[in-house]
Amino acid sequence: MNTVRILSLIIGVVLLVVALVFIFGSKDNNFVRMAKILPESIGQFTFVDVSVIRTDEDLQLMWDSLQEDLLGEDVYGEDVSKITGLGMAGSEYDLMLYAGDFDLEQMTSVIEQRSLESLKYEGSTIWTDQYASSAAVIDDIVFLGSSEDIQLCIDVANGQGTSLYDNRDARDAMGRLPNGYILKVAVMGDEGSSYGLLYAGMAASKDDGNTSNTLLWKFEDSDAAQEYVSVIESQVPGGYDVTQDGQYITALGMAEMPSPEEGAYGSVYDDLQNAVIAYYSDNGGVFPTINATVNISGYDLQIVDVCALLTSEGGVLDAVPEGIAAVNGPNNDNCDAGCDGCLDTNHYIWAVNDYGLFSVCVGEGCEANGEDGYQGIWP
């Protein structure tokens, strides 16, 4: 795999995390605690400070999203609000780590009740359920993943293996990253690797109503870094300031935090997109649409049939999402297939084509009529 491709993948992963930055909290001791238990071979580690978003009024919508998308309502009988730190380790989040103000005796009792079998390993108990998912408590942190990976973590905790924190490059990244809502480090290679990239890291934080996103790369030497400054500049979003300091390259960008209204719009977008994708997959590559179009940014797009996305029709939505407009007349809004939930006090009509999901704002109060995206009014 060539270097440009590798950098593109790493930047893409990092920026995907940045796109979700409003869900996450800031750097604390749990970041290092977890890194000291994870085996060096895990390679990638993302840390989320859950405690910040629970107490920040600006992030309440994001707390809701984090619960819905990653956490749920409880973790083995303990209320999810007791979580203070969340770790996601491995290229595909092979391990999930939970730190918090837990009643560990109660948690392990619930874990045991839900498990089919248990294994005693090096002084720790590993429980495995019917889905082959294992759990263990190591140094008051709850680990979820495969039994094999958890055993490696137990080895590291007992001083019998090398941790991610023991890796010089991972430790360097952790030390150089600023405080952030979310912290990520990915160890890429060793000295002498063919593409010269040793690690990538990122941090994002809240700063006077904005977010400050820091992307960090360490190369084998300054010559290797210099070779890829232009590659990184071409991959990061516009507005990022890319600088080189010897073997390090840093990209710094600022972004405004969305208003609660824009956050609500974004949440509906995500819900609808997931529902449309599920329908498309279940119906042989056919989109859920009514026999009508709406013009969005100069293109006539098929209006989404929201009724077909409801659980009553085999879809995944419990109800018509907030903010979808009802327009007088047939075949011109998302509920015209016969369901309730679109309101004439709402402002958005949703449409779809092969390029994705789009919205148009209708009625009074829109910043722009006929244009895609959030238009300054909700619902």
Detail the topology: elements first, then pairings.
Layout: H1 3-19, H2 29-35, E1 44-49, H3 50-55, H4 60-71, E2 74-75, E3 78-79, E4 83-89, E5 95-100, H5 104-114, E6 117-121, E7 124-128, E8 134-138, E9 141-145, H6 147-157, H7 168-176, E10 182-187, E11 197-207, E12 210-219, H8 222-227, H9 229-235, E13 241-245, E14 248-256, H10 260-282, E15 289-296, E16 299-304, E17 348-353, E18 356-361
Antiparallel strand pairs: 1-4, 1-10, 2-3, 4-5, 5-9, 6-7, 7-8, 8-9, 10-11, 11-12, 12-14, 13-14, 15-16, 16-17, 17-18
Describe the structure.
By secondary structure, the protein is α+β, with helices and mostly antiparallel strands. The protein folds into two domains: 257 residues, no CATH class; 102 residues, no CATH class. It is 29% helix and 29% strand. It is built from ten helices and 18 strands. It has a twelve-stranded antiparallel sheet with strand order 6-7-8-9-5-4-1-10-11-12-14-13, sandwiched between helices. Strand 13 and strand 14 form a beta hairpin. The longest helix has 23 residues. The protein is globular. It starts with a helix and ends in an 18-residue tail after the last strand. The N terminus is likely disordered.
